[in-house]
């Protein structure tokens, strides 16, 4: 920690300089402890799948299983854990590029609706698997926005994926409309919901309301922080509202492309 503590009992410029230095020290310490926590999280998240991989490799190597079924089960776990590692590394790579401002966005004037429909089509398989209904109310002739089609699809896919993951029964509702100078997208589910206290934290890196459950479902806890970063890099906004046991609603907005504004 930075042990700076300036005590100047005066209300003049020198006094306010003292306050500024104290604030800066506080900020620096907070930054350092965030960084430390971030790296502690990363090593924990990377170590866990490796522990599984090594453990099951050892079991298989020493023939410590009873049946062929059991062997297959261990191999499946190893496959899943390898996939998780890949996902984690990709997510971390995305995040670090974004935070350094080094991600290259291909900003084009595009039809957001088309991108959303591609994401919905891909989500359909998972939706059907879980027996969830999809209600979509997508306005026709929504104005074009300036965005990166690939990154926008990543945003929609991620939010839809979460909605499906955290919903046992009911429906996923998707809405698109334009209002003032913005195109609005709503992705809403009738799932488990998020506790009021957790709502402000869900966009934070590695934050997961239920660690073990999210992990079981394949989550890395990085999805929403990537989503938020990507939305903001495309000049959009994202917010969430939720009722525990009722469902969750993500609201996004993107400015209408200047080139097409009347
Ligand atoms: P994860 O990989 O764990 O899904 P995310 O960053 O995507 O990580 O989400 C962070 C946490 O926010 C999740 O662990 C989950 O607890 C909560 N969450 C995200 N989306 C939803 C949703 N649609 N319904 C309920 N909870 C959600």
TrEMBL record:
Catalytic activity, as annotated: ATP + protein L-histidine = ADP + protein N-phospho-L-histidine
Residue stretches making up the Histidine kinase domain: 41-258
GO MF, any single term: ATP binding
Class in the EC hierarchy, top level: transferase
The organism of origin for this protein: Lentibacillus cibarius
Cellular location(s): Cell membrane
Alphabetical UniProt keywords: ATP-binding, Cell membrane, Kinase, Membrane, Nucleotide-binding, Phosphoprotein, Transferase, Transmembrane, Transmembrane helix, Two-component regulatory system
Keyword Kinase on entry: yes
Keyword S-adenosyl-L-methionine among UniProt keywords: no
Membrane topology: Multi-pass membrane protein
Cellular component aspect of the GO annotation: plasma membrane
EC annotation from Swiss-Prot or TrEMBL: 2.7.13.3
Official protein name in the record: histidine kinase
